[in-house]
Specification:
Elements (H helix, E strand, L loop, with lengths): L1 E7 L16 E3 L3 E4 L6 E8 L6 E11 L7 E4 L8 E4 L2 E4 L4 E8 L7 E9 L11 E13 L8 E6 L2 E6 L5 E8 L8 E3 L2 E3 L4 E5 L6 E7 L2 E6 L1
Parallel strand pairs: 3-11
Antiparallel strand pairs: 1-11, 2-4, 4-9, 5-6, 5-8, 5-10, 7-9, 10-11, 12-13, 13-17, 14-15, 14-16, 14-18, 18-19
């Protein structure tokens, strides 16, 4: 997921303001899975896409509480002595066209499923001259999924006419994606929205037709296609 930040000192018409070019960054992955049978550390590479400018990047860890529900909270992990998940280093300086790695480490003992998000935010250097400027900063966010010690799959799916009901009764996430449905003639096919269902999450989806619908379900076991 991209995070977009815009800072501007324009008072009236933004389009009339000259823009300052800012070095962009890229990441080599957007989702990181920590499985119970693998080492508790993984690396994310940050790449400076600019051919001329250095990139300064701040790294911040957020713990996701009650993920996928209306009560979801994203709490910054600010106390390193109590942190159960860390990203190091917390600050990066990348030369033009350079790349550096950030190590993600799970420090907690195996237990229930946990979810974190890690922000990678470019830091703007001070302006060298005064005047009206627009500066656009594009940051990125990595989703971190820490599987339980013994993942168990149990996705309950029920259909009532044109309504699908999903309930994840297992203890690990399931991503419901690549949904597709066509009309009775096999025409007018539409792509359906997807959703990541964490343990205990529910989801209700209204369909356009009475015909079967297919989804790809992805979890710790891999991916498979199901028809409902």
């Amino acid at each position: 997921m991209n995070l977009r930040y815009i800072t501007a000192t324009c008072a009236l018409v933004l389009l009339a303001c000259p823009a300052v070019a800012v070095a962009g960054i890229l990441l080599d992955k957007s989702v990181v899975d920590f499985k119970p049978d693998e080492p508790p550390r993984q690396d994310v590479f940050v790449i400076n896409d600019s051919a001329t400018d250095k990139a300064y990047v701040k790294v911040e860890v957020l713990e996701v509480v009650n993920p996928g529900t209306e009560q979801e909270e994203r709490r910054p992990v600010s106390d390193p002595d109590k942190a159960q998940f860390v990203a190091s280093p917390a600050k990066l300086i990348l030369p033009a066209k350079g790349r550096k790695q950030v190590r993600l480490v799970n420090l907690a003992a195996p237990g229930s499923e946990r979810v974190f998000r890690v922000n990678f935010t470019p830091v703007l250097p001070p302006l060298q001259d005064e005047g009206t400027r627009i500066r656009v900063v594009v940051g990125y966010q990595v989703l971190v999924l820490i599987h339980p010690d013994k993942p168990a799959e149990k996705l309950n799916v029920r259909r009532d006419g044109r309504t699908l009901y999903f309930e994840n009764q297992g203890n690990s996430y399931v991503f419901v994606g690549n949904g597709k449905q066509c009309d009775a003639k096999g025409e007018n096919c539409v792509d359906l929205p997807g959703k990541r269902l964490y343990a205990g999450n529910t989801w209700e989806l209204t369909l356009s037709h009475d015909t079967p619908v297919t989804f790809t379900l992805t979890n710790f076991k891999g991916a498979r296609t199901e028809t409902y």
